[in-house]
Amino acid sequence: MDGTVQDLISRVRCLPVSSDSAGLIDQLRGLEELKAATAAAQAKVAVAFDLAQRREQAKAGIPVAEQGQGVAAQVALARGESPSRGGRLLGLAKALVAEMPRTLAALDAGRLNEWRATLVVRETACLGAADRCAVDEELAADTGTFAGAGDRAVVAAARAAAYRRDPRSVTQRAARAAGERCVSLRPAPDTMARLTALLPVAEGVAAYAALSAHADTLRAGGDGRSRGQIMADTLVERTTGTPGGVSGVEIQLVMTDRTLFQGDSEPARLPGYGIVPAGWARGLVTSGGKGGKARSPGSAAGGREPALDGPESPGSRTPAAGACQPAAEVLETEPGKQDFMVWLRRLYVAPGAGDLVGMDSRARLFPSGLRRFIQARDDTCRAPYCDAPIRHHDHVVAWHAGGATSLGNAAGLCEACNHTKENHGWTTVPRPGSRHTIEYRTPTGHTSHSTAPPPPGSPVAGQLVRATKLVRT
Predict the structure, then answer these.
(1) Residue 25: what pLDDT?
(2) Can you tell me the distance from the alpha carbon of 165 to that of 177, in angstroms, rounded to the nearest whole number?
(3) pTM (two decimals)
(4) How far is CA 444 from CA 40, 50, 79, 471, in A?
(5) H or E element in which residue 111 lies
(6) Do 310 and 362 meet the contact criterion of CB atoms below 8 Å apart?
(7) Closest CA to 46 of 114, 113, 110
(8) Cβ atoms of residues 409 and 430 within 8 Å
(9) Domain boundaries, the chain
(10) Where is the signal peptide (predicted)?
(11) CA distances from 89 to 46, 80, 83 (A)
(12) Which of 367, 285, 351, 288 is nearest to 317 (CA)?
């Protein structure tokens, strides 16, 4: 690391804390200004790095259209951020340095923090370079225009200035925004989740109005649920087509046999959400999360026999202590609601290290079985600092470079990270370790490591290691 930066870090770490209240407030304000100045310096450094990488790529003969690929991912690694956020940070840096110098000066002086500078840049993204510079001059953020202003005031000012400068571009941006409609899922506290839909305003209002009207009708008929509960339940039922919204969907809840059968308190893991309490996980398995009653295999209505994943010999693999046997239960949900099956599939972990080494499956030797295993082992994208959902099951060492189609050479990645590792100068290789480990090497020679998260119940289950410190080798 650069000696000057290292010296600055050391001085901040050794900063003595003031002994009086007024002095403490002064220190807080000063440190906030230091953070803003650091963000401005990072923007300048990121732009300089982008230019340096493009020059090096040009010398290497990379076509102009492909130059700059992988730069955002390297910025993300250096800042300990996800690749997607690295792209946004690089875009912010370019806009500030090249087109909005007065906003950059305000950030450097501590008149704006990094988030509010981001808001100004975001609201002017639809403008051309000349118009953006003109808006930057109009706002004159470095003179204290936004002193005392909150986020909404900053957004309103930037948006109004952009509209005055080029109303047609703003209108076209609104029209293009419909193409960005999507649905996302984010964890919330207490085993809840936020299902969010980004929709054109007319469709969003119509969907909300329909749910609201339905809730009012049921409430008027004596339904004891709150209005919000009815709307949430209706959304799930209409989306899944199933009362309760669970039947027919594989959710791949991962827990230890001790948690399932012996009442152990070891938390479980729900892909797409994260860690969940042991009692909640047991409740989902034994009653579908609705307080229902479990029945033994073979006792389902109509004499149905649930299909089982057949047991297979683990060979030299060692199962976790008390590893459960393949089994299934058919769960009885609330009256009038559909029955559903719970499948139990054994996962084998290496004793001591906690590395996931095997899994029961009738199709274990086929690609679908291997993909299922990788999904269970990696949980989310294996790239350092990225926790996006797995979209690609990828060779760590590319197949065309001689990489084997094997578990040790496999990784679950999101689409963006899979493309990034194929850029010029990037290499990835498996490394020995107690759990599956991948070494990432960037074009600048820096390396970082990604280690598969331990499954619930392993001796190191509390160590959710994804990446080590970025170092130059």
Answers:
(1) 95
(2) 20
(3) 0.70
(4) 23, 12, 15, 10
(5) none
(6) yes
(7) 114
(8) yes
(9) 21-176, 182-240, 257-345, 356-472
(10) none
(11) 9, 12, 10
(12) 351
> DSSP letter string over 126-175?
TS-HHHHHHHHHHH-GGGTTTTT--HHHHHHHHHHHHHHH-HHHHHHHHH
Here the tokens at position 174 are: 């609104």
DSSP 472: E
Report the 10 Å Cβ neighbour count for 331.
Answer: 22
Answer yes or no: are the C-beta atoms of 393 and 374 closer than 8 Å. yes
**Residue 262, exposed/middle/buried by CB under 10 A (0-12, 13-18, 19+)?**
exposed
Taking Cα atoms as reference points, which of 370, 343, 346 lies closest to residue 250?
A: 343
Tell me which residue of 232, 252, 233, 257 sits closest to 243, measured CA to CA.
233
What pLDDT is attached to residue 79? 94
**pLDDT, tens digit (0-9, with 9 covering 90-100), for 98-109:** 999 999 999 999
User: CB neighbours of 279 closer than 8 A, spacing ≥ 6?
Assistant: none
**Is 9 buried (19+), middle (13-18) or exposed (0-12) by CB count in 10 A?**
exposed
Beta carbons within 8 Å of 251's beta carbon, 6+ residues apart: 270, 271
| Strand positions, DSSP E, 296-375 | 327-332, 340-344, 347-349, 356-359
Provide DSSP, 372-415: HHHHHHH-S--STT--PPP-EEEESS-GGGT--SSGGGEEEE-H
* C-beta separation of 385 from 394 below 8 A: no
In this prediction, residue 344 carries a pLDDT of 67
Residues 172, 166: Cα–Cα separation, whole Å: 10
Q: What is the DSSP letter of 8?
A: H
Helix (H, G, I), strand (E, B) or coil at 426: coil
pLDDT of res. 265: 83
Give CA–CA dist 370/169, Å, rounded. 48
Distances 223 to 216, 217, 289, 335 between C-alpha atoms, Å: 10, 9, 21, 17
pLDDT at 149: 92
* Residues of the chain predicted below pLDDT 50: 289-338, 360-366
Q: What are phi and psi of 431, to 5 degrees?
A: -125, 145
Q: What is the pLDDT of residue 347?
A: 66
Residue 299: how many other CB atoms lie within 10 Å: 14
Calpha distance 320→325 (Å, rounded): 12
Please provide the size of the chain in residues: 473
Tokens of 352: 């001591």
